[in-house]
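We treat protein structure as text, and this decision shapes the records that our systems exchange. Below, we set out a record of this kind in full and without editing:

***
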Amino acid sequence: SDFFYVYNNEGQSKIYRASLSNPQKELLVSLRGNQVLPALSKQGNQIAFITDVAGRPDLFLQKLDSKKRMLGRARQIFSAPRATQASPTFSPDGKQIAFVSDKDGPPRIYLLDIPAPKDTQRPKPKLLTTKNRENTCPAWSPDGKKLAYCAKVDGVRQIWLYDFETQTEQQLTTGPETKENPSWAPNGLHLVYNTEDNDNGELYLIHI
């Protein structure tokens, strides 16, 4: 019943933990600066997030114990000069992270093997999305075979799927409304996402 959220306290964003049975917030990561966009692994033993503790928005990883408390220190697993990282999502086995970066220009989605704590050489991320210039909001499917994300097509954000087996990208939605933040059903057969225009926002469910 634990959940994680970001709360802006005295001008800085921090990641907190609470539960349905105990809504009292508990600071999860004790770092300087801002920490945002937390993502928990399926195993519940690590959390990825973005922090500017080193001066720019970098991708960090924090190990957790069985009670979802910090285990050791958070470590930086990806950084790039003059680049912003965002929106990490774990593979179901907890061995890889997909995330957004503008390190090569427009925001695109990259795949990173999580390095072991003692690795001195950091693995290079692999570019996944190439069809569109702006890609955000990645979400890994429960079976690990697909990645849902949103991409701008003709000025409108649409939901797309990346297939890891075929290494192809497929547009899933059309229409004039902006569509963002895809999230998978546990059985992997449905996606929920939100739309947004000048007047309102709505939730939609789509069978894939």
